[in-house]
Amino acid sequence: MNELLDQLIFVAGQHAELIMTKLHMPLMPTWVYITDEGACIAGTPWQDEVEKKVMAMELRRAMLAEGAKAYSMVTEVWASAAPEGWNPETDDPIRASEQANRQEYVLCFATDGDETRWKRWEIKRDHLERVTALKEEDWNPGDKAHSWLTKLLRKQ
Question: Which domain holds residue 98?
Answer without folding.
Answer: 2-83+90-151
